[in-house]
Design a protein that fits this description.
Length: about 350
């Protein structure tokens, strides 16, 4: 480039000198002026000196060397949970970097300071978690220990990764048993409260008196008014028993006693007088008739069956053994007791029970 400019300027000076007919001194002065101009142009176009040696210009750029990792693995460190005596088992990889300090600072064990810092942070998180939530606590520790933080001494920054948090097997089994017991207790407590509420409802509301019991029954059986009337005696007994009291006098005549007999006396028994019948009816409710004939017919016993009286007597004994006196009286009353000839011309002796007849009548 310098040579080209020199030739160009020289030609321009020659053309200009010939055209203007320079004197000899002008031609002498143009030579040094041309040299000075060429030198200045050379200095301007000369490339700058490179600070990197020319031998290294063809070599590719090399990456910076990777910083040396400073980390340490800790395993099976006990961390307290929110429940006493139930500790988590903590494992993690602790990573740290040493901070710049003055030259006169004391030497340190960077690994020890980093591990202590990580454990302090992990303990603060684990102590807030119940022992049966180890999976949740592990994820929380992943977030809490994922950031480099300066330790208490200010000499290192530490973090942790590859965290593992678990509860020993025997503690998990113990907690599972305790959980089942608590659940059973909750169910039992709810059942007991339900039973108390039901007893209070029946005793203080439904069976408060006979009228309340009748109204409660009608609310559940709106179409059975006659059934409610038939059960007034039962309701009176239930409400009186619920209060540990006697049946109210106005309901005494509707109450049925298990030992009561039917109004019709059995054969051989003393009939109630009209006056005594009136008194009895005012005290006890008359029982409905027992279908003795239908019961015997169910066993294939017809009215003219020769074993009818014996069968009816045995059924009456069974009814008496079970306290069914009304059924007993009806069965014994169905026995045939009228006088008949025995076939030998002798009449039946009313004072002596005949063979195969109702002996208990």
């Amino acid at each position: 480039m310098t040579l080209f400019i020199t030739l160009l300027l020289g030609l321009m000076l020659v053309i200009l000198g010939l055209t203007m007919s320079w004197p000899w001194w002008a031609w002498s002065a143009s030579g040094p002026l041309l040299l000075i101009t060429v030198y200045a142009i050379y200095r301007m176009l000369r490339p700058k000196r490179l600070e990197i040696a020319h031998d290294f210009l063809s070599a590719p750029d090399l990456p910076f060397p990777e910083a040396e990792r400073q980390e340490h693995r800790i395993t099976h460190v006990a961390l307290p949970s929110s429940v006493a005596d139930y500790d988590f088992s903590f494992s993690a990889t602790v990573r740290w970097t040493v901070l710049d300090v003055p030259d006169d600072a004391p030497w340190i064990n960077a690994a020890g300071l980093a591990v202590e810092s990580v454990l302090e942070r992990a303990r603060a998180v684990a102590a807030q978690q119940p022992p049966n939530r180890s999976s949740l606590a592990r994820h929380q520790l992943d977030g809490a220990l994922a950031t480099m933080r300066v330790d208490a001494s200010g000499r290192v920054m530490a973090m942790a990764h590859s965290i593992e948090l678990d509860l020993p097997e025997h503690d998990r089994e113990r907690l599972a048993r305790l959980s089942n017991v608590r659940k059973d207790e909750d169910v039992w407590e709810h059942e007991r409260n339900y039973e108390r509420s039901k007893r209070a409802y029946l005793g203080d509301d439904v069976l408060k008196d006979t009228g309340s019991a009748v109204v409660w029954w009608l609310s559940r059986n709106e179409e059975e008014v006659e059934g409610a009337v038939d059960r007034i005696g039962v309701f009176a007994q239930l409400s009186a028993a619920a209060r540990n009291e006697s049946v109210a006098p106005q309901f005494e005549h509707m109450v049925h006693r298990p030992g009561d007999r039917s109004a019709e006396a059995e054969p051989g028994e003393t009939q109630l007088t009209p006056d005594s019948q009136v008194g009895a009816e005012s005290t006890y409710e008359a029982e409905p008739p027992f279908p003795a004939d239908s019961v015997l017919a169910c066993f294939g016993i017809s009215p003219d069956d020769p074993d009818r009286d014996l069968f009816a007597t045995r059924l009456a004994d069974v009814a008496r053994a079970h306290g069914k006196h009304h059924a007993e009286a009806a069965l014994r009353g169905s026995c045939i007791t009228d006088d008949k000839d025995d076939g030998d011309g002798r009449g039946h002796d009313p004072e002596k029970p005949a063979k195969d007849e109702c002996e208990g009548a």
